């Protein structure tokens, strides 16, 4: 076994790898960028090496610097995690040329699976079913259109170099083919530098079922399947293992196909064979097709670990250090059912926009497995994937594991950024999902219901008001001594209320003309005589009420509110976190409604920010190159009547 390894990654996956290393007595070296100086993975590792600026190209993608860091610290091997350099065959070769071990497959195996067309051809040869379609080299549009006709509409055009759902277009009839082809090609050229596409039959009501494989370079075993059908725009949201309705017969056939696929390329380490499955009529032995292979550890690997009892990172290290496969196929069994939900800092009602912020409060339930790279007080920066944590539950049956997931999500407390928690909770309560009736269209079909922002219950807001008044703080004497009768107006970012303290443990909150009688004893709260499950938490950013539809009230001082009331069309705010690319106006300049004021780059796209009305620029509050938060004021116009 290695005595020291370097982890060429960040966030939860770097922490996850360090966890297993610790258990195995393997020393760890972390790497980090400017944005991650104080990150959890750096604090957890035995040593850490600085790489450079926050942009991945300046840090986590700097292959030479990473290899040098491994050499300087005496690490014998490099674990790539997922993303970044994990599926870069050139990196594998450079690691090996430096006399180090890459914890993962060979460069040759990665290349074999790197392009979707070549991978499909290879899998066909190995006797693995592939989605019917065209994956040849003739990229002439007329030829491709004719192939699409032959396959039969609807078809899916896919970038051969694709990933992350980019360069994919569904086309429903011949009329739409050329447009679909053109946009898929240009997106592919932009994202991957390779415009080539393949064409597949579009599977209606598809399910995404993938099989975890593990190889030693010659032989492979599989660790059963995961169902990742709950997707939004081809991004997985909740994953589970095993797949609902899977039969032992189909499992055996799919597992054997996956193992064959891995052995066909001499696969070493952890990998995933993704299948698309026709879910329109139950699972069938001839109803699954190879889509692609991910030649790395997957984000959702913990559900497999939960049901098999295997530590996949431990296996990765053991096989990379030269040990044989740690288990034979017959040693592997499924125990119960597991779910994983991906908790993100994102603004769901605004269209799932990535969010940023400093997490003033972060607490996870202790009855679930939590994989995270974030601690309370950490900042979610705009530089990386805004994942806060993966929440994993495991139970004897699917129903119990799903109930545990729901409870774990309700018990998760985050303040300081918007999150997708309510959306995840709504999913765990979705009737179809509960029945195991999943397909990749489920979320899109029911999106409106799933994202409907349930308003916080007024009784819970009354508790928030109690928190804003400092009456919920059990760490000081606030709750005990503040019992003199008093009456105050409490203001926060979304409203106001009148609070009357009636005596020790009793207060009245008048909210929108309605009185709520609040009583408390220790940490137990009653509103209008009903016992509440809520938890009131005071933190740097305000007061949050958890346990139900969670929300945060940000205290306002009355003067600030009056100033804010004037801020209508005069202020142009940044709609999302991003980088100011350019500013097109200066103070004193006359502008008309619709004029471009500034350009913001966010989520790899440029957004023009325009004037909401005619006016004169009073102040320019941001400059090109500034990193700004959502809601940051950028340009202020003079008051209209001024
Ligand atoms: P990427 O590598 O960009 O993630 P994949 O080939 O893995 O692309 O496909 C991503 C998702 O697109 C799948 O999980 C599935 O939901 C959908 N998909 C892929 N191929 C098909 C198909 N032939 N028919 C219908 N849906 C498909």
Task: Characterise the protein shown here.
With 642 residues, this protein is of the alpha+beta class. It is 27% helix and 33% strand. The protein has an eight-stranded antiparallel β-sheet, sandwiched between helices. Strands 24-25-26-27-28-29 form a six-stranded antiparallel β-sheet, covered by helices on one side. The longest helix is centred in the middle third of the chain and has 17 residues, at 248-264. Residues 131, 156, 158, 162-166, 168, 200-203, 206, 208, 231, 234, 274, 276, 291-292, 440 line the site of adenosine-5'-diphosphate (ADP). Residues 563-638 form the Lipoyl-binding domain. This is 3-methylcrotonyl-CoA carboxylase. GO terms for molecular function: ATP binding; ligase activity; metal ion binding.
Report the bound ligands by name, code or SMILES. adenosine-5'-diphosphate
CATH class of the largest domain: Alpha Beta
Q: Please, what is the CATH homologous superfamily of the largest domain? A: ATP-grasp fold, B domain
Amino-to-carboxy terminus distance? 74 Å
Looking at the structure, what is the overall shape?
Answer: globular
Biggest sheet record: 8 strands, antiparallel
**Total beta-strand segments:** 40
Low-confidence parts: 476-482, 559-567
Q: Approximately what portion of the residues adopt beta-strand conformation?
A: 25-35%
Structural class: alpha+beta
Summed over residues and divided by their number, the pLDDT gives a mean of 92
Number of helical segments? 19
The second-level CATH architecture of the largest domain is 2-Layer Sandwich
Q: Report the C-alpha radius of gyration, rounded.
A: 27 Å
CATH topology of the largest domain: D-amino Acid Aminotransferase, Chain A, domain 1
Fraction in helix: 25-40%
Strand order, largest beta sheet:
14-13-10-11-12-15-22-20
Integer count of domains: 6
């Amino acid at each position: 076994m290695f005595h020291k390894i370097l982890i060429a990654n960040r966030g939860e996956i770097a922490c996850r790898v360090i966890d297993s290393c610790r258990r195995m007595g393997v020393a760890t070296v972390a790497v980090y960028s400017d944005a991650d100086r104080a990150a959890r993975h750096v604090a957890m590792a035995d040593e850490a090496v600085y790489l450079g600026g926050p942009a991945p190209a300046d840090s986590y993608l700097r292959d030479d610097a990473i290899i040098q860091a491994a050499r300087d610290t005496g690490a014998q091997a490099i674990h790539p995690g997922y993303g970044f350099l994990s599926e870069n065959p050139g990196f594998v070769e450079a690691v090996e040329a430096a006399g180090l071990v890459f914890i993962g497959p060979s460069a040759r195996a990665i290349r074999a699976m790197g392009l979707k067309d070549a991978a499909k051809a290879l899998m066909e040869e190995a006797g693995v079913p592939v989605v019917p379609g065209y994956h040849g080299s003739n990229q002439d549009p007329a030829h491709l259109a004719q192939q699409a006709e032959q396959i039969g509409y609807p078809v899916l055009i896919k970038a051969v170099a694709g990933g992350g759902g980019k360069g994919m277009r569904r086309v429903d009839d011949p009329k739409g083919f050329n447009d679909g082809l053109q946009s898929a090609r240009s997106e592919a050229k932009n994202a991957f530098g390779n415009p080539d596409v393949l064409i597949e039959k579009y599977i209606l009501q598809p399910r995404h079922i993938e099989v975890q494989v593990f190889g030693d370079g010659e032989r492979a075993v599989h660790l059963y399947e995961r169902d990742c059908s709950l997707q939004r725009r081809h991004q997985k949201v909740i994953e589970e293992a095993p797949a609902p309705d899977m039969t032992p017969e189909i499992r055996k056939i799919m597992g054997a196909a996956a193992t064959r696929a891995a052995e066909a390329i001499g696969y070493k380490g952890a990998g995933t064979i993704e299948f698309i499955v026709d879910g329109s009529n139950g699972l069938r032995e001839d109803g699954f097709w190879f889509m692609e292979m991910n030649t790395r550890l997957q984000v959702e690997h913990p559900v497999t670990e939960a049901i098999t009892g295997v530590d996949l990172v431990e296996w990765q290290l053991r096989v990379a250090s030269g040990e044989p496969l740690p288990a034979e196929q017959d040693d592997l069994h499924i125990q119960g059912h597991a779910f994983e939900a991906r908790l993100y800092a994102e603004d769901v009602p605004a269209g799932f926009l990535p969010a940023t912020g400093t997490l003033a409060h972060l607490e996870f339930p202790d009855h679930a497995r939590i994989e995270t790279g974030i601690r309370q007080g950490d900042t979610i920066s705009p530089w990386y994937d805004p994942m806060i944590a993966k929440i994993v539950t495991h139970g004897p049956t699917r129903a119990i594991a799903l109930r545990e997931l729901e409870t774990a999500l309700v018990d998760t407390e985050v303040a300081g950024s918007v999150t997708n928690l309510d959306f995840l909770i709504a999913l765990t309560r979705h009737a179809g999902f509960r029945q195991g009736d999943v397909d990749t269209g489920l979320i899109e079909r029911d999106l409106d219901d799933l994202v409907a922002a349930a308003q916080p219950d007024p009784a819970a807001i009354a508790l928030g008001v109690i928190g804003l008044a400092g009456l919920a703080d059990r760490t000081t004497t606030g709750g005990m001594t503040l019992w003199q009768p008093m009456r105050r107006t409490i203001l926060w970012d979304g409203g106001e209320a009148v609070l009357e303290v009636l005596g020790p443990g009793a207060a009245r909150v008048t909210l929108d003309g309605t009185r709520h009688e609040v009583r408390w004893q220790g940490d137990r709260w009653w509103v209008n005589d009903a016992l509440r499950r809520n938890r009131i938490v005071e933190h740097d950013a305000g007061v949050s009420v958890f346990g139900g539809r969670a929300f945060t009230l940000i205290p306002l001082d009355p003067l600030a509110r009056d100033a804010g009331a004037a801020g209508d069309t005069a202020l142009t705010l940044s709609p999302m976190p991003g980088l100011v690319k350019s500013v097109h106006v200066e103070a004193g300049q006359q502008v008309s409604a619709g004029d471009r004021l500034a350009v913001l780059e966010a989520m790899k796209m440029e957004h023009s920010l325009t004037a909401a009305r005619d006016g004169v620029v009073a102040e320019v509050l941001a400059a090109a190159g500034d990193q700004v938060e959502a809601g940051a004021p950028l340009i202020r116009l003079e008051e209209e009547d001024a």
